[in-house]
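Quick one:
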Amino acid sequence: MFTAIRKHPLIAVFSIVVLVLLALGFMPQPVLVETVAVTQAPLSVTIEEEGRTRVIDRYVISAPVSGVTCRQQLKVGDNVKQGQTLLSITPLESQVLDARSRAQAEAQQQAAEAAFNAAQEQALAAAAAAQLAQNELQRLQPLMQQSMISREDFDRARTQVQTTAAAKRSADFNVETARYELEAASSLLDYSAAISLGEPAERVAVRSPIDGRILKINRQCEGPVKTGEPLLEVGDPAALEVEVDVLSADAVKIKPGMQVLFERWGGETPLQGIVRIVEPVGFTKTSALGVDEQRVLVISDFTSPTEQWSRLGDGYRVEARFILWQQNEVLQVPASSLFRYDDGWAVFIVQNERAVRRPVQVGQRNGLRAQILSGVKKGEQVINHPADDVDDDVPVKVTSIDQ
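Output:
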């Protein structure tokens, strides 16, 4: 054998090279991986949906009697005062009430008067509830400063003050609406008599029930109208709320009093708000992909100062971000570094150029990041997007480190 090697040294060298290359080829090669450091930073879990603003109390002013309206001189956006005459209606000359019609008109007037009295009583009850909530907040203020009550109880009392104040404003608006409806019911009787020859035609004045602005004009030109036909809409743009339709599966996670941020509304900083009510009735809405979804309306109020969102109007688009959970200094990793292991979660960390499987306990998740309750420490390098060929004690080579 040695004689053959001495006679053919090139063949011997070539054979040795081939054996060495085969040995190197069958040796396990390190897997290329990308790592990211375990960090400790703020983390929040949110639900994001598009919403739009709307005036809390808007009033559709309808024609109280059938007749002919004058040409509308107001424009959308004009300011109006409570009791201001918006337009006038000249009743039809041939309109005469028979006995049954007059009895019905009188019954409607009495019903409107009863509704006005009921609205006044409800306004008194709302005012009493608002005062009680304010007194309770003042009573809890020194207790909160002395740490004798929880922050949650104090926030609940403050939310109750805002809720009862909004209910009081709404009840006051209802009183004005009931008064306006009473006037509308009375006008049917007051202006129903036939006009004698030679007398000037009487006009029914249509007045604004509140201080606000013109939101919509249904009829611009002069012409005949029927009783109950919408003429225009008025409201107060300074009293805005935000309606957001969310999936019903997300609506069950949202509770009244929850913090919400409004972004991409046109300003530089997000606006703060608070959830007032999650409507108990859902509806079906077809998504852009043609899928029927069950949606629920969530109504929120602004808590930021009015001057910050005073440029918003009725029907403006905003993006609402409901904060379900939020905490500072949270130990976290990218959600893409987690994988299922033994009915739980695990990650691969890099130690001595090898992948080490480490079971972890996962807390809150927001889709991109995940809270780690135990299993890893801050600063350790975990493998991001681990491939199928990455396993415990497998040699790895880090190609890039994402801090």
